[in-house]
Amino acid sequence: MMQVGTWLMLMVCLIWFGCFIYFTVKDLGDEGKKSAIIASGEPLDPYLFSGEKARAEARALYGKDPVVKKYFDENGITPFLTRPE
User: Which residues are CB-contacts of 59 (< 8 A; sequence separation ≥ 6)?
Assistant: First the structure.
């Protein structure tokens, strides 16, 4: 009979592998959407595909939360909030 640790490691490996497959398929789906938009001749929405959405969310948090402001300032993230792509 296998030890508990062996079963635990087997479960961890299976969960990791499942997450890897899920996120890989999800990312390939996003790439497929981008390819379809490019193939149709439409310009890509920079808000969705350039990281501008994440930057806008970070700017909003920077303005509201003093802990986030302190963290961004101490770790040199603040200049990237307004940097052009």
Answer: 81, 82
